[in-house]
Amino acid sequence: MPGDAPVTVSDSGIEIADAYAADLKRAGLRKSGLRGAIGHFFLRHPLGAAGAIIMGVFVFGALFADLITLYDPLQTNAPLSLTPPSRAHWMGADFMGRDIYSRIVYGARISLAVGIGSTLLGCVFGAAIGLTSGYLGGWVDLLAQRIIDILQALPLLVLALVMAAALGPSLRNTIIAIAIPLIPSVARVIRSNTLALRELPFVEAARAIGMSEARIAVRHVLPNTLAPVIVLATAQLGAAILTEASLSFLGLGIPEPYPSWGRMLSESAAEYVRTAPWLVIFPGLAISLTVFGTNLLGDALRDILDPRQRS
Amino acid sequence: MASYLTRRLMLMVVTLFGISIIIFFLLRVVPGNIVDILFDSAGMVNPAEKVKIERELGLDKPIPVQYLAWIGGIAQGDLGYSYVSEKPALDEIAPRIPVTAKLALLALIFSIALGIPLGVISAVKQNSGVDYALRVLSLTGLSVPAFWLGLLILMAFVARFDTIPIYTEPTKSLWEELLLYSVPAAAVGFRSSALIMRLTRSSMLEVLRQDYIRTARAKGASAQAVNYDHALRNALLPVVTIVGIEAAFLFGGPIVTETVFNIPGVARFLVEAIRTRDYPIVQNLVMFIAIVVVVVNFLVDLTYAALDPRIKYAG
Question: How many CB atoms lie within 10 A of CB B1?
Answer without folding.
Answer: 11
